[in-house]
Amino acid sequence: MTKYLSLYQKIKNDIQQGVYKPESRLPSKRTLADLYGASLTTVEKAYGMLFDEGYIFSVEKKGYYVSKAIDTRNFAVKKTNENLKLLPLPKKENYADGFEYSLWFKTIRKVLNDNGELLFRKSPQMGCEVLRNAVSEYLLRYRNMVAQPSNIIIGSGAEQLYETAVLLLGRNKVYGIENPCYSRILTVYGGMGIKLKKLNMGKDGIKASELEYKDFEVLHVTPFHSFPSGVTTSITKRTKYLNWATKNGSFIIEDDYDSEFFAKGHPIDTLYSLCKDNSVIYINTFSKSLSPSLRLGYMIIPDSLLSVYEEKMKDLSCSVPVLDQYILADFINSGNFERHLGRKRRKM
């Protein structure tokens, strides 16, 4: 810390702790300079900072005085290093669950070398083009899903994407959710003041009788390995979900968490892939497939909601750092992501 900052901090602390009382005269600049072995310029800078912050005021030809508005009761007792209770640091363990993180670090170095100034630009509102393109191509290769990059939105995890879905569809609607469901769904929707209708689960998804009610307007489902029930929705029930949306002119939020780890063979068709009338909003993240520390996910919205998104989100920015988006895009484009998924699936 520079000398004038140290002097400024010392005088400020003395004022806050009552060493210098309100309206009392402070030592002259010459006195302070002699006391602390500082130059007059150093003292002037320190007093100038205190003056700018309102701690002191000056009287012509008399010097500086402590502001009469200072009330020492508003300041906490000065803390010293002995008061700090540092948190224990995590031990070096394998948090990556088999993930070859050396590949990730190699990708980071490559992205830094290849992209330079691009990494310092502001992310487009819906996310960087390079990642939206990579996700689109990956979904076509790995999931047989056709999703145009222009319909893909990048976000920082499932919770943020749930909030985005609500902002698109409206807070005033009743949202039907699986019962039981992932606790974060309740936390996010509850925190936004959303009215919820809990729909009881059967062996192959939400019970058909629950879908007959008309007292909810949006359906939020996790068709693959719904948590905590572990239920995977049958193709018959998925069709009923879509029929419900078509019949009521409503939207379905498809939460496809964990879907990369499908049983051996081909992946189960998503509601998004089966839908013919653009009524499905698809959400997925990389928390399970890569690491929960990577706060990154994506949402696919139908064409009918693109203008709504542009209008309602025009003042908001993408919450994912550009560097993270470029790293993940390169990791996907290089084939490392799919090879990683293959290794994890073989161990299941």
Topology readout:
Blueprint lengths: L2 H14 L12 H8 L3 H13 L3 E4 L3 E4 L34 H15 L13 H15 L8 E4 L2 H12 L4 E6 L3 H9 L3 E8 L2 E2 L11 E4 L13 H14 L2 E5 L15 H4 L5 E6 L11 E4 L5 H7 L9 H12 L2 H12 L1
Helix pairs in contact: 1-3, 2-3, 4-11, 5-11, 6-7
Number of helices: 12
**Morphology call:** elongated
Compute the average pLDDT.
Answer: 88
Number of strands: 10
> How many strands, which pairing sense, and closed or not: the largest β-sheet?
8 strands, mixed
- Beta fraction of the residues? 5-15%
Alpha-carbon distance between the two ends: 54 Å
Q: Low-confidence spans: pLDDT under 50, at least 5 residues?
A: none
Q: Helical content, roughly?
A: 25-40%
Estimated radius of gyration: 29 Å
- What is the structural class? alpha/beta
Strand order of the largest sheet: 3-10-9-8-7-4-5-6
Verbal overview:
The chain is 39% helix and 14% strand. The chain has 348 residues and is an alpha/beta fold. The chain has an 8-stranded mixed β-sheet with strand order 3-10-9-8-7-4-5-6, sandwiched between helices. A two-stranded antiparallel ribbon has the order 1-2.
Give me a quick take on this structure.
This protein is α/β, with parallel strands linked by helices and 348 residues long. It has 12 helices and 10 strands.
Primary descriptors:
two-stranded antiparallel sheet, 8-stranded mixed beta sheet, alpha/beta, 10 strands, 348 residues, 12 helices
